[in-house]
Design goal:
The protein is mainly α. It is about 65% helix and about 0% strand. It has helices at about 1-15, 15-25, 40-50, 55-60, 65-85. The chain is globular.
Amino acid sequence: MIYQNVSRLCKQRGISISRLEKELGFGNATIQGWNGKWEPKARSLSAVAAYFGVSMESLMQDAPDDDKSVAQEESNKTDSKEAVRRDA
């Protein structure tokens, strides 16, 4: 579930998982290993959440509405940034 959420966010941003790993200073295939091989460390999960501007909890959700909650959280963050720009 975590890997799928991260993968979805990468696709929404137009970046590869490999690029995300490099930008965050992770080893090669670290995030890909979250696809069933091992669980992420809290520090790594926190870094990914901060990168995308979402909560760690949203990355860990496994409900059918996953797509909506992670995407909605990212959309809300983007809307907030745009509102700040308009007010500036």
